[in-house]
């Protein structure tokens, strides 16, 4: 995906694999500044038509009709992504190359045209969802998706829904799944056939053959829901190990405790301390420049 936020979820997984000794090739739109220091080979793709300016987040919290139609807008955008992908020189070189891989990892978002690479290299496919699981992704993993208590990502509701909300939620789920299956899956098939030539399996079969799904969710934040064993939550993967605090200077310090009711500095501004109770203030300074530092009671 061309969205920067998607890369923020993918990158820790990529680097984790490389840190464990795997040779990783990444084809993406955002190359990290420290790419040369990592054990990952990055191949830059064009950022033309980036997702960032193309979607208004306000669309996800509008009328019930808009909520029903929003998933289809994502699927429409997926066709634009396929067109950009299979016209990119780096991708065309990859398809024509004789490279060998052991695993193919792709994002499961708004198109399945990426699945052709798994067949092309004859390797298992692992999918990664950078958001809560989209409606058309559940069936291929046998993942339970009951709209009576599992809210669609596009509904904006929780698992406690009124009857009208459940009906709208069901409409979102089923309209999304039917649209993806009947309209956009054949379009994905056309892209795959064009890119990889004859003999490519049906996109539907390749989707059902996906081995594993990582989903950027955590039940403490995105609500608990039933998950199949081949669906693994990885929410928080983007959070790195805490860095140690900077070491405190070892220079000699002189401390002064004094009573103060004067103006005090705070965050670049000042506040009037008059009328407040006297307080003890601890300050530090270089001992060589404060020969008269003392405890003043």
TrEMBL record:
SUPFAM superfamilies: UDP-Glycosyltransferase/glycogen phosphorylase. Residues 243-297 are annotated as: Disordered. Gene3D superfamilies: Glycogen Phosphorylase B. Keywords: Glycosyltransferase, Transferase. One of its GO terms (molecular function) is UDP-glycosyltransferase activity. Signal peptide: none annotated. Residues 286-297 have a biased composition (Basic and acidic residues). Residues 249-267 have a biased composition (Low complexity). Belongs to the UDP-glycosyltransferase family. This is UDP-glucosyltransferase 2-like. It comes from Frankliniella occidentalis.
């Amino acid at each position: 995906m061309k969205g920067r936020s998607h890369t923020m979820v993918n990158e820790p997984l990529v680097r984790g694999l490389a840190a464990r000794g795997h040779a990783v090739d990444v084809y993406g739109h955002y190359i990290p500044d420290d790419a040369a220091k990592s054990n990952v080979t990055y191949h830059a793709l064009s950022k033309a038509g980036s997702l960032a300016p193309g979607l208004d987040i306000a669309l996800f919290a509008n009328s019930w009709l808009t909520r029903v139609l929003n998933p289809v807008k994502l699927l429409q955008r997926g066709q634009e992504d396929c067109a950009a992908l299979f016209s990119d020189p780096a991708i065309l070189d990859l398809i024509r190359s004789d490279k060998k891989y052991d695993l193919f990892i792709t994002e499961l978002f708004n198109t399945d045209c990426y699945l052709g690479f798994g067949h092309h290299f004859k390797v298992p496919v692992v999918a990664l969802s950078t958001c809560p699981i989209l409606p058309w992704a559940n069936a291929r993993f046998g993942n339970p998706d009951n709209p009576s208590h599992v809210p669609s990502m596009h509904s904006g509701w929780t698992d406690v829904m009124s009857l009208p909300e459940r009906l709208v939620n069901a409409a979102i789920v089923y309209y999304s799944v039917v649209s993806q299956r009947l309209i956009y899956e054949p379009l994905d098939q056309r892209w795959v056939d064009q890119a990889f030539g004859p003999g490519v399996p049906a996109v539907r079969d390749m989707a059902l053959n996906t081995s594993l799904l990582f989903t950027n969710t955590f039940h403490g934040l995105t609500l608990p829901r039933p998950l199949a064993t081949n669906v693994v939550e990885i929410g928080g993967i983007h959070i790195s190990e805490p860095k140690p605090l900077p070491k405190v200077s070892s220079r000699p310090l002189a401390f002064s405790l004094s009573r103060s009711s004067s103006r005090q500095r705070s965050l670049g501004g000042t506040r009037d301390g008059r009328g407040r109770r006297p307080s003890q203030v601890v300050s530090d300074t270089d001992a060589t420049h404060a020969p008269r530092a003392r405890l003043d009671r």
